[in-house]
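Lab channel / #folding
Pinned by the channel admin:
"Please post every new chain as: sequence first, then the structure tokens as a reply. Keep commentary short and put observations after the output so the thread stays searchable."

First post following the new format, from NK:
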Amino acid sequence: MHDRIGTFARLAFVAVIVATSTACSTNPATGRSQALMYNRGEEIQIGEEHKGPLTEEFGGAITQPALHNYVSDIGKRLAAVTESDFPSLPWEFTLLNSKVINAFALPGGKVFISRGLCEEMTNEAQLAAVLGHEVGHVTGRHTSERMSQALGSTIGGAIIGGLIGAAAGGKEGAAAGVAGGATIGGIVSLSFSREQEIEADRLGMRYMERLGYDPVGAIEVQEILGRAGGGGTPEFLSTHPASATRIAELNKRYDKYYAHTRGNPNYQKHAERFQPFLAGLRVLPAPRAHAEPRPRTPEGARALMFAAAFHAGQSGDHSAFGPLGDPVNWCWHCAVAAAGEAD
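Reply from TO:
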């Protein structure tokens, strides 16, 4: 009995430390008050530290100047119209040599998009929508917020589950309760991630409209992802909303805030500017065979942990991670240990 009390006391202490180590502030991009695990300088450091391993996990960067500069120019123009001091972040936009249909961001201004996703597009507005969405993850400070929420909810769920299990079934009941409670806590953290995805969609639409892109491009991107994703994990257990949910939300937002862009020549998709870029991608050599979403090193696992917008096959299926499971629930030590088991 004393051992159980000691265990739960230690868990409770950890939960208190987690809760008190985060700082609350109002985000100028979203207007929301957020409890954040990392400050601006730490977010920049995380992005700088993990951009290399993350790029390597996805087959390396496409460095041909015309292709790289095209993506980077659009991304930096989007970053320049963000709020407050976000334009001063050390923004970098990387085009990955991977056929995986994917895009994601690291905190501090590091944004990645795959060749595979770009090759599914038909116009520049769609590319701006994806990059804007990832910029929105950075300005929404979603990684810091998500890490705080995931850790807090998992620990909290484990404590509550353990106490209930101990009362019902002694030591074995406590163990089962801790496991079940942690799972429930993980599901709570997933719901926050879905909300963040919708928020990033909204921010991305805002930024692309500021540059004169037709916001319909954001809706078209979700149609592309819907076709690519197919079936999979039910939306409730996915880290991202279904494309149909996001399309409905974006349509509502378009009608409410961007109706002035409909048929307006000042807002374009720029299909003609996109075609040379698309043609350039299609003549590149095939990407490396291993350019798929499976962490192969502890460094790669940690980098993926911090990617705020990891779209696992667009269907919520995280089986590709093997023992690493769902990235939203990773911790430093678990990521390292699981990556070692997967090798």
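NK: The mean pLDDT is 77.
TO: also worth noting, Residues 142-210 form the longest helix (69 residues).
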